[in-house]
Amino acid sequence: QLQASGGGLVQAGGSLRLSCAASGSISSINVMGWYRQAPGKQRDLVATITWSGSTNYVEFVKGRFTISRDDAKNTLCLQMDSLKPEDTAVYYCNAFILTKGSYWGQGTLVTVSS
């Protein structure tokens, strides 16, 4: 089970830190990631991190967002800086285990005002 938190209302240019707490160990999770879904749009990938710590970001968040994982705390984080109104969306965390499939958290709303 994944529990996302940290969303809220922030002004453009501000920062938020999202967290995703797993109910069990994340050390065996192959890939964890953050996705987002704006109103009326499809869910899009934001960033991923592998079990070895390799990260990948989509172009529109590069240099502004940082994904990290703390296996000791079973937590995935997304540090979001220089936020823009177009970053407004519900953010979801995801865990992919090769032998078991994909798991989703419940989402946390991020609203960036201009």
Radius of gyration: 13 Å
- How many runs of DSSP E, i.e. beta strands? 11
Number of helices: 0
Percent range for β-strand residues: over 45%
Mean residue pLDDT: 95
Taking the alpha carbons of the first and last residues, their distance comes to 34 Å
**Helical content class:** under 10%
Q: SSE order, as H and E?
A: EEEEEEEEEEE
Query: The biggest beta sheet, please?
Result: 7 strands, mixed
Sum up the overall morphology in one term: globular
Give a summary of the structure in a few sentences:
The chain contains no helices and eleven strands. By secondary structure, the chain is mainly β.
Report on the architecture of this protein.
- The chain is globular, with a radius of gyration of 13 Å.
- With 114 residues, the protein is mostly beta strands.
- Helix content is 0%, strand content 56%.
- The protein has strands at residues 2-5, 8-11, 16-22, 31-37, 43-50, 55-57, 65-70, 75-80, 89-97, 101-104, 108-113.
- The chain contains no helices and eleven strands.
- The model has no long low-confidence stretch (mean pLDDT 95).
- Strands 2, 4, 5, 6, 9, 10 and 11 form a seven-stranded mixed beta sheet that branches. It has a four-stranded antiparallel beta sheet with strand order 1-3-8-7, with no helix packed on it.
Note the main attributes of this structure.
114 residues; mainly beta; 7-stranded mixed beta sheet; 0% helix; 56% strand
Write the layout of secondary structure elements.
Elements (H helix, E strand, L loop, with lengths): L1 E4 L2 E4 L4 E7 L8 E7 L5 E8 L4 E3 L7 E6 L4 E6 L8 E9 L3 E4 L3 E6 L1
Parallel strand pairs: 2-11
Antiparallel strand pairs: 1-3, 3-8, 4-5, 4-9, 5-6, 7-8, 9-10, 9-11
